[in-house]
Design brief:
Layout lengths: L3 E8 L1 E2 L5 E2 L1 H10 L8 E3 L14 E12 L9 E9 L6
InterPro entries: Capsid_scaffold_GpO
Pfam family, one: Phage_GPO
Protein name: Phage capsid scaffolding protein (GPO) serine peptidase
Length: about 90
């Protein structure tokens, strides 16, 4: 059975390259993500390979997205996006 993990991937505020991510955008991502419509995959880099045993293959699939309020720390009160990631079985081998 594939292993799943949860990761926080985005928090409202400014990105490193100067774009603003709003609460509304994060909530929309959480509400509308559907892996049956468009499945987000995690890759090693922006390069994709046609070969399944390549370093540049898919390593995981995002199963779901959820918005939550950060409870403590420097981002307290901000809305964050948490995703459930299904790791490819081969990655753990």
């Amino acid at each position: 059975m594939p292993k799943t993990i949860k990761l926080t991937v985005c928090t409202e505020g400014m990105t490193l390259n100067g774009f603003a991510v709003t609460r509304e955008q994060i909530q929309q991502m959480a509400d509308n993500y559907n892996p049956r419509l468009y499945a987000a995959r995690l890759n090693l880099e922006h390069v994709k390979s046609l070969y399944p045993d390549s370093l540049f293959r898919h390593y995981a699939l995002i199963q779901s997205a959820n918005a939550y309020d950060v409870k403590d720390g420097p981002l307290q009160g901000k809305l964050a996006l948490e995703v459930t990631v299904e790791l490819d079985e081969e990655k753990d081998a």
